[in-house]
Specification:
The protein has about 190 residues and is of the alpha+beta class. The protein contains nine helices and five strands. It has three domains: about 60 residues, Nucleic acid-binding proteins (OB fold (Dihydrolipoamide Acetyltransferase, E2P), Beta Barrel), CATH 2.40.50.140; about 60 residues, 5' to 3' exonuclease, C-terminal subdomain (DNA polymerase, domain 1), CATH 1.10.150; about 45 residues, Ubiquitin-associated (UBA) domain (Helicase, Ruva Protein, domain 3). Strand 2 and strand 3 form a beta hairpin. Helix 7 packs across helix 8. It is globular and about 45 Å long.
Length: about 190
């Protein structure tokens, strides 16, 4: 099993990226939550990974944080959910946002995620209730989010912003110092100033 990769980002074109690790180019598939935080090609990068071995392919998935990988692995255990849907979930909602959807039994929010219909959303709520990964709080990697940032991200999604827009709105804000409400206010202020 390949647990993580540390090397240089060579190229990125969603959902794929290529990393040079000791002279070997690894093709990695990653959710958009990871893509939004990637550096420019030529810069150092470290990702935690999950390797799927199938009869016809070996696919390496990369994640910016341990909590994203833990959620991905938990989603794969849900009946009818494969890697494609799991990546769609991670691309459309933060780990904390997903946890909150399950706690609140929010089917409507889950059906807005790529590849998730009503039946799949209901299955996710039932099967993930006991399977939610523990929050590692590591914030590792470029897209790791602290609790306040996750809460602000979820609020921006609820206001109708797309996941990518919400990530860009929160980028470069002082997430260590500001609370969720202040982050939301500041992100919205910046949007209206443009």
């Amino acid at each position: 099993m390949i647990g993580f990769l540390k090397g240089t980002l060579i190229s990125k074109q969603p959902p794929w990226l290529v990393m040079d690790v000791g002279g070997v180019g690894y093709e990695i598939e990653a959710p958009m939550s990871t893509f939004y935080g990637l550096p420019e090609p030529g810069q150092p990068l470290q990702l935690v990974t999950h390797l799927v071995v199938r009869e016809d392919a070996h696919i390496l998935y990369g994640f910016a944080s341990e909590s994203e990988r833990a959620l991905f692995r938990s989603l794969l255990k849900v009946s009818g959910v494969g890697a494609r849907i799991a990546l769609g979930v991670l691309s459309g909602i933060t780990v904390e946002g997903f946890r909150q959807c399950v706690v609140d039994k929010d089917v409507a929010m889950l059906t807005r995620l790529p590849g998730v219909g009503r039946k799949t959303a209901e299955r996710l709520l039932v099967e993930m209730a006991d399977r939610l990964p523990k929050d590692t709080g590591d914030g590792a990697g470029p897209a790791g989010r602290a609790g306040a940032e996750s809460e602000a991200h979820g609020a921006l999604l609820a206001l109708g912003y797309k996941p990518g827009e919400a990530v860009r709105m929160l980028k470069d804000l002082d997430t260590a110092r500001l609370g969720a409400e202040e982050l939301i206010r500041e992100a919205l202020r910046r949007v209206h100033e443009r």
